[in-house]
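Intended use. Records like the one below are meant for learning the mapping from a protein sequence to its folded structure. Do not use them to infer anything beyond what is encoded.
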Amino acid sequence: MSISPISSSMMSMYVPSTSTTKKTAAEEYEHQMIIQQLAAYGVSSTGDYETDKTRLEVVERMIQMNESQKSSTRQSIPFEDVMNTLNLTVTGDLDKDYDTTIDKLDYEIDMAYSDEEKEYYEALKDQVESEYNSSKKDSISYYSAASQISNMNRYMLGI
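Structure written out for the chain above:
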């Protein structure tokens, strides 16, 4: 049995393009996943695959930047040297480390056996309070700037 040239050319016309079909199905699946991730972040979908994909990438980059900034902020304690002098463990939480250091210094001031020792610990306490307050002022201006950037990003994303 032979195939005529007419029927063989007609058969090639009916073969579906599997690469296009698979790509479309894969894109649709990926777009559904992107929509779910956007919703989890509280961002609405535009319905356009490329736009939503870009939005998700921007949101994930912003989250990653915030997390790295938070972790670097936590590890920077301005009075770490005083904590080391007092044999205290630095946790990286500014407020907790401040409270622990001040409590220890108050104890040392109360237990001082001479005026010189008492003055030494009072001077350390003044230093810690000064560095803590300075650090708090810096963090307030940092978070204010960060919130302005966040608001600008939300505006640009149309969230």
